[in-house]
Amino acid sequence: MSHNTGLHRRRFIRIASLSVFSLLTGGALQITEKNRTFLRPPGSLNESTFLSRCIKCQRCLQVCPSRVIVPISLNDSIRSVSTPTLNFKHGYCDLCMECMSVCPTGAIQPMNKEDIKLGNAVVIKEACIAWDWGGCTKCAAECPENAIQLDNEKRPVIDQNKCNGCGLCEFICPSSSLRAYNANIKSKGIVVQPLNHRSA
Amino acid sequence: MRKKIFTLGRIRIAVAAILVLGVTYTGTKYQLDWGTLCSYCPVGLLQVMLAAKTLAISKTLFLSIPILIFALFLGRLFCAWGCPVTLTRDTLNQKSHSGERKKSSGTLQNIDDYSPVVKKGKGLSQYTTYCVFVLTLILSFSLGFPVFCLICPIGLFFGFCFSLWKLSTLYQPGWELIIFPSILFVELFLFRSWCSSICPVGLIFKLTGALGRTFGVALRPIVKSDSCLSQLGSNCKICSKVCPEQIDLQKPEPKLLDDCTLCLECYTKCGKDAITIKPELFRKKHQLESGTAKELKN
User: Is the ipTM of this complex over 0.85?
Assistant: First the structure.
């Protein structure tokens, strides 16, 4: 009898400590990553609802014709690892709405094109050719929403009300290739940042 | 079925590879919406319902419910034929999906290489799977995201595959290229009995298969009393020895038989073709009462 109670006690302690450990780890993840935001596919719900629904099935990644959806790496987040984010290296989001139609859990919901705002385009003045040197007007010329205007010195200025974060400007910005000789330039001259983005 | 060019183990590896890697590769390359196996996961469905606190997960229902309906008939078939864990383990020629070491090609001559039937302490491993499952549901509800997906070896396997994809398309390596395989190594080779002690996906398939058994439709290996050597008096125990789940087919207790993954080892290794895979309904037809077979022989 005493042997049995010892076994039961050991089991209970094991299960209890496992539960407490998991709860603390999960809670720590939630707290430390509370304000972390990422670019999400168009039609995504707010971050906490998105994370409660995303099962990392990669269907949105597979159907995206522009190949802008990529999984988040462990470097950027533990809680959000493998969930989809946008990367404008090989394309931009043309709002084809494919990802909305395949998400099985409703983390990405169908939405009207006019209501979609993926993020805000922000000029990185140290990297932008026009701001740092002069002459480049590509983003202002190509923006599908006409959200980028050139000021008196022909430098791009973004109207955040018009920008829907499609990423075309970031995709075509030639800064990273034309200015590759300069190691201080870490990004393109214009990047799309998630809404509620906080500078590190 | 006696003389096969390909061993059963290799056929299982091929099927699992097609299901796991082939589907994912084709879906990614041709921009289809097949997703990974995680799209169909019933445990994922439950976690998301609890984390998002909603029942309105319509598309996942359409993906997971057919899987569960299959499981009524096929039970834990996924564990032997579709799971990346089994694929990894069998490919590396290590332990089979339930932790039992398999040796050589398993021909009848080498049958002694298999460890004898051990009365496994089923109570403990069943207990832990239920605990892990309930813990997963509680944590998903309270923390608000699907927690098991962070450590699920199926999820980690696909996460690793897509991390390789990200590396090949964006030239951006991530820490998960090292950490995911490390966690997989710990789970698959140091834990050994992951499948029978922890995996909630296997648990769901087992429970659904048990439901199918009560309806009589679940496929199970059934011993034909007129052909089986053990039933006719000799001490052949090959089917029980080769079973990775250590099921004793001579004394098939229904609850233990729910662990069957339909790996077909017993079916192919039986020297007398005495095992048939049929729905539970047919069990009475094939099993005479104990002793009757001996009498018939005499």
Answer: yes
